[in-house]
Amino acid sequence: MDAFLLWFDEFWAVYSNLILTLGINALLALSIWLTLACGLLALANAAFMGIGAYAGALATMNYDSPFALSLVVAMAAPSLVALAIGVPVLRLGGVYLAMATLGFGEVVRVVILNTESITGGALGLNGIPQQTQWWHVALALAIVVFMLARLHRSKTGRAFEAIKVDETAAGLMGIDLRAHKLLAFVLGAAIAGLAGALNAHLTFFIGPQEYGFDRGVEILTMAILGGIGSLIGPVIGAFFLTLLPELLRGLADFRLIVNGLILVSVVLFLPNGLWDPARIRNWFGARR
Amino acid sequence: MQFMRSAIVALAIGASTVASQAAEVKLGVAAALSGLAAQYGAAIRNGFELAAEEINAAGGVNGNTIKLVVEDEQGKKEEAINVYKKLIFQDKVLLIFGPTLSNSASAANPIAQAAKAPVFGTSNTADGITAVGNYIFRNSVTEADVLPVTLKTVVEKEGVKKVAVLYGNDDVFTKSGYDNFAKALKDQNIPVTTTETFAKGDVDFKAQLTKIKASGPDAIVLSALLAEGAPILVQARQLGIDLPFVGGNGVNSVKIFELAKGASDNLWVGSPWSASNDTPENKKFIEAYTKKFGLAPDQFAAQTYDALHIVAEALKKVQLSGDIAKDRAALRDALPDVSWTGVTGPFKFRQAVDKSGKPAGYDADQQPIVSVTKDGAYQIVK
User: Fold this and answer.
1) Which of A249, A232, A236, A254 is nearest to A15 (CA)?
2) Cis omega (within 30 of 0) on the bond before B148?
3) Residues 189 to 218 of A: which have CB under 8 A from any B CB?
4) Which residues, other chains included, contact A202 with Cβ-Cβ below 8 Å and sequence gap of 6+?
5) Tens-place pLDDT, residues A204-218
6) What digits encode the pLDDT tens for the residues B13-64?
7) Is A123 on the interface with B (CB under 8 A)?
8) Facing residues of B370 across strands?
9) DSSP state of B61
10) Which DSSP category does B90 fall into?
11) Which residue of A has its CA nearest to B71?
12) Among partner residues A17, A113, A252, which is closest to B169 by beta-carbon distance?
């Protein structure tokens, strides 16, 4: 037992940050899953993460707010922004929505760059106290998964599903399209903001370039790669994408090449994502 | 690269079998070997490998061989933290060199400070890096130290009375370069005719340059990276602006001669290292580096090369006990007193202070060399 504890102490010292990042990335993947589950390709989650990170970090640093309050601020700020831009932007569909939300992400980045007195501009915010503990992330992930699971099975969740499959038919059945889309968008923003604040209070530092296009694509990839058929998919996708580069560390210079090869094979052989129960059942069926 | 690394490992193994009692001193290197900062990371790794090879070939430090544990931190803050934790707690290195970017350093250095493991930055030039604590060292001379010297030299040599300023406002490096230039201009009472900005990825700077030309300065202060700095030079010369440009570290690279072919003259830069500096140490370094890697070294390689020698000097005074915590503390205590004349000239540490004015980590105390570009080469200004 003592040997195990000793081993665990060392393991935790080395990998605690990675494990917390797993949880935070899972939250991000879930945040975009919400809009994807509603058939919306909105790519503003990196920007919402940034708004949450800055709002939470500024609350902690400038107003000495307790961590819980900072997290609430970090969820409220992007939600309000999402509410404001969601009304006009969600009238768009398909690639037009993707373009508009990408544009919004750029706007957020430029605003952060130019409000130097508050956000530190290009230099970022330095010296954020490290307050995120493992159980904060675990609890946040558990609550979000639980609430999303409940939502998925509720009337609202069914409405999301209906909108995803056929928007016109859903509208004819009496589903309020605009209200449901807006709800998915705002909830997604709140989750992304929460993830942003947890990350900011873990890494001592945030800068505007962290919440740009690259991060947006990374979040989308995590959700799509995991599979958006259920809640488990995005979480698995986030774990997979975060762990893979670390597991391949031994390969040194070939690491990113192998990393890329694995991702391409996953997309080729598992087009519906890693978590695809029907396909997995099929594999075992064929073997029998 | 892979081949070279195995060659070094083989060399290290060979050396350790010769001296049977010799131990290995493990030093970590956290560098951006992939991602956007990979070009810097590659030079950084080369510099360390060359220095380690030389030190080990000469018998190591007190008979102990130096073993580098190189990890890729991709230029990302999360990766830098992961790498630091691996190096400190799993590989149990005595000291960590790195990370490549100042942003990563802001995120990862507090981890090392808390674990009482020394960190030695070779490329972090941002303000406040060493304010984290007394385990943080760097030999990269900050822009705050270099830019005033460069500016002063240009003013003296070219009789500059007033300047125009052009900088990138969406990049950490160019923005903090601008802040330091602005402070230096104010301290030296040089009036600014106009201040213009651009963003990363811009390709046309004619609007800003025309405005600058109209404001009638004697020189242009430029805080840019190579990607924007080179076209700015070209377009300025096209517009008939023959004024001297005063640049920061971002445009201090031999690549400028290629990227701004025919328009690269009259750019003034300052750095502790210059390829044209012909001290015996520097000549030997350039020759060995070119022979080993088949390309010319840059200042990143030069600074890492010196960094390992500085740490080796400190290690000579440390009696290694095998207890990693004790040895790290002993190395930390030995480092501040090291003085070393390497490829970047005479070097010693200067203690920095944190936000509340308390003594913290250690910055480089070094005199920069100012050079001006002429006919595709740097000429040292004496």
Assistant:
1) A249
2) no
3) 203-205, 207-210
4) A17, A20, A21, A24, A130, A132
5) 999 998 999 889 999
6) 444 444 445 688 999 999 999 887 888 899 999 999 999 999 999 999 999 9
7) yes
8) B270
9) B
10) I
11) A252
12) A113
Tell me the two tokens of residue A162: 């209906």
- Encode burial over A188-221: b for 16+ CB neighbours within 10 A, e otherwise: bbbbbbbbbbbbbbbbbbbbbbbbbeebbebbbb
Determine if the pTM surpasses 0.95: no
Q: How far is CA A169 from CA B50, B251, B341, in A?
A: 68, 59, 78
Domains defined for chain B, CATH in brackets: 2-141+278-365 (3.40.50.2300), 144-271 (3.40.50.2300)
Handedness of CA A111, A116, A118, A124 (dihedral sign): positive
Contacting A with CB below 8 Å, chain B residues are: 1-2, 5, 33-34, 70-72, 77-79, 81-82, 85-86, 88-90, 103, 106-107, 110-111, 126, 128, 169-172, 174-176, 355
Distance of CA B315 to the CA centre of its chain: 22
Of B34, B106, B170, the CB nearest to A256: B34
Residue B1's pLDDT is 47
Mean pLDDT of A127-133: 91
Q: Do B103 and A246 touch (CB under 8 A)?
A: no
Q: Considering only CB atoms, which chain B residues are within 8 Å of A210?
A: 77
- If 0-12 CB within 10 Å is exposed, 13-18 middle and 19+ buried, where does residue B254 land? middle
B218 φ/ψ angles, rounded to the nearest 5 degrees: -95, -20
* Range A10-36 average pLDDT: 94
A255-282 per-position pLDDT tens digit:
778 888 988 888 888 888 888 888 878 8
Express each pLDDT in A39-65 by its tens digit: 999 999 999 999 999 999 999 999 999
Average pLDDT of every residue of chain B: 89
Which of residues B285 and B176 earns the better pLDDT score?
Answer: B285
Is the Cβ of A251 closer than 8 Å to some Cβ of chain B? no
Residue of B nearest to A121 (CA): B170
DSSP B131: G
Report the residue of A22, A113, A126 to disrupt the B interface, i.e. the one with the largest count of B CBs within 10 Å.
A126
φ and ψ of B198, to 5 deg: -145, 175
pLDDT digits (tens, 9 = 90+) for B321-347: 889 999 999 999 999 999 999 999 999
ipTM of the modeled complex: 0.82
Q: Mean of the per-residue pLDDT values for chain A?
A: 91
Q: What are the chain A neighbours of B176 within 8 Å (beta carbons)?
A: 122-123
How many Å from the N-terminal Cα to the C-terminal Cα in chain A? 41
Q: Of B157, B136, B302, B109, whose CA–CA distance to A205 is shortest?
A: B109
Q: Which chain A residues touch B85 with a CB distance below 8 Å?
A: 13-18
Say yes or no for a CB contact (<8 Å) between B170 and A208. yes
- The per-residue pLDDT for range A80-123, each reduced to its tens digit, is 999 999 999 999 988 999 999 999 999 999 999 989 899 988 88
* B77/A113 CB distance under 8 A: no
- Are A208 and B110 inside 8 Å of each other by CB? no
Q: Which of A76, A110, A67 is nearest to A211 (CA)?
A: A110
Helix (H, G, I), strand (E, B) or coil at A131: coil
Q: Which amino acid is at B166?
A: L
- As a whole number of angstroms, the distance between CA A153 and CA A157 comes to 6
- Whether B172 sits inside 8 A of A123 (CB atoms) is yes
Residue A16 contacts B, CB cutoff 8 Å: yes
End-to-end alpha carbon distance in chain B = 38
